[in-house]
Write a structure and sequence with these properties.
homodimer; about 300 residues; mainly alpha; Farnesyl Diphosphate Synthase; 2 domains; two-stranded antiparallel sheet; about 75% helix; globular
Chain lengths: ~300, ~300
């Protein structure tokens, strides 16, 4: 089923009649195609759902291209990122091409679907801005963190599920919440992996987020659990390259205060709600996706 | 009339409920609002045309933000560019916010209008990519130059005129050609000014385009007129910072071969066609805009 999406995206790119863009697009890693999967599972294997899935994946690819420039990311899915190989400018421009093609094809679909998806892209781009803005200070506000990851990550997954439900004539609200919770849990687990995984598994240094100034959920929980003196120490390390001693201290404190378990429990709560919703709808494939999400190694 | 557009854009930005984005948006120079003017003159002063004009100007502002990052431009309309003050990353992100809000509002308009405008944004983003790609070699192909400036500059002006004509129930084709020619002539004159103006008037060094590797129309015409030996000299200077001697030589050759006149004549030809089309439609304001365009100081 996903093959049809890959072919459709290629068709969209080929229709631009620009060999350089096609060659660059083919260099991008396809990824898990989570958003496409959701759309196909919800709205079935038909031309409308394949088009919607392809458009959303083009928009997602565009957002990743810009995200990697903004985060100075040199790798994406354990391979060198496009900006690392061809420079930031080309990554920005290819992102703009994919965004504009995505929006153009989106405007050929049902107006309500175009609304849902383009609404999500606004949230996504604001979430990106908030992610960078928040990394300038030590954020201890969980609500603010949730709001930011909702925009940055969950909004397009939510829109995928919700627009697919609309396409299939299913209950939009249930699928919307399913997608939103899936997206939030995905980002929470991703942020947790940065703390619990070794750098080889991650393909980037562990605790990289914190060094970049990002106080993700584990740090918010940890800060809450520490003594005043320890709080000061954690604050003093924010946004800096960590020495081995400091790095070990952060990881010890995370373990000592059961932070991974707390983060995991928070993600699991969201996933449970998502699962319950899909059980009432008899959506076994969507159930599996949700279950697999919290079974990621952490 | 343009005030209504400024207010509408502000409304769109305010609806994002993000004070930082509003503050950044307010720092952007409004510019001439050429695209908005065309839309209002063609489709009249009503809510639909004000919405369309505001959306197109948001998209245009987004493209300029990314353009300045890609061109390493430190000034925009004689003021420091946003990327120069706040960095490239913020300019990319604000551009993405304006693009996505623009597309989102566009998807609420008539589907045909959304098609015309979003088609133009694809051309615009590909034109941007071609502009950068072409600057790596000494381009002597006028057709390729025209194709690139059509994408980069004329496509959105063409789409503005064409979509406004659709909105007003006027002849789309005539207005489309008017907009296209206006856009092409605008870019040709702009490229000519880089050769003929002094750096103070330009707000950037003269011959900057050529130093950046851009062989715009004056260079294509000049190359054509030079002897083989002189051709070699011009080629050898491409994409380099010019010494005073080389810079003076280029400008002398431009004068000696009447290059400004040739470029001007080419732009004037396009403008004349645009004027003729608007005369048959009795569009006096559009006539004036076209006339003013080739009266720019050069």
């Amino acid at each position: 089923m996903l093959n049809a999406v890959e072919r459709k995206i290629e068709q969209y790119i080929i229709s631009l009649e620009h060999p350089e863009i096609l060659a660059l697009y083919r260099k991008l890693p396809a990824g898990k195609r989570l958003r496409a999967k959701l759309i196909l599972y919800i709205a079935g294997n038909n031309i409308s759902s394949i088009m919607l899935a392809s458009i959303v994946e083009m928009i997602h690819a565009a957002s990743l291209l810009h995200d990697d420039v903004i985060d100075d990311a040199l790798t994406r899915r354990n391979k060198p990122s496009l900006n690392a190989i061809y420079g930031n400018k080309l990554a920005i421009m290819l992102g703009d091409v994919l965004y504009s093609k995505g929006f153009n094809e989106l405007s050929k679909l049902d107006a309500k679907i175009a609304q849902i998806v383009s609404d999500a892209v606004i949230k996504l781009s604001i979430g990106e801005l908030d992610d960078v803005g928040m990394s300038k200070t030590f954020n201890t506000d969980k609500e603010q963190y949730i709001k930011m990851i909702y925009g940055k990550t969950a909004s397009l997954i939510e829109a995928s599920a919700c627009s697919a439900a609309l396409l299939a004539g299913k209950s939009q609200e249930k699928y919307r919440i399913y997608g939103k919770n899936l997206g939030l849990a995905f980002q929470m687990i991703d942020d947790l992996l940065d703390v619990t995984s070794d750098s080889q598994t991650l393909g980037k240094p562990a605790l990289h987020d914190f060094e970049e100034g990002k106080t993700t959920l584990p740090y918010i929980y940890l800060y809450d659990a520490l003594s005043d003196q320890e709080k000061e120490r954690l604050r003093s390390l924010h946004g800096k390259i960590l020495s081995k001693i400091d790095s070990a201290w952060v990881q010890e404190q995370m373990k000592a205060h059961n932070i991974p378990q707390k983060c995991y429990a928070q993600a699991a709560l969201l996933i449970e709600e998502a699962i319950t919703l899909m059980q009432t709808e008899g959506e076994t494939k969507l159930l599996s996706i949700a279950k697999e999400m919290i079974d990621r190694k952490f």
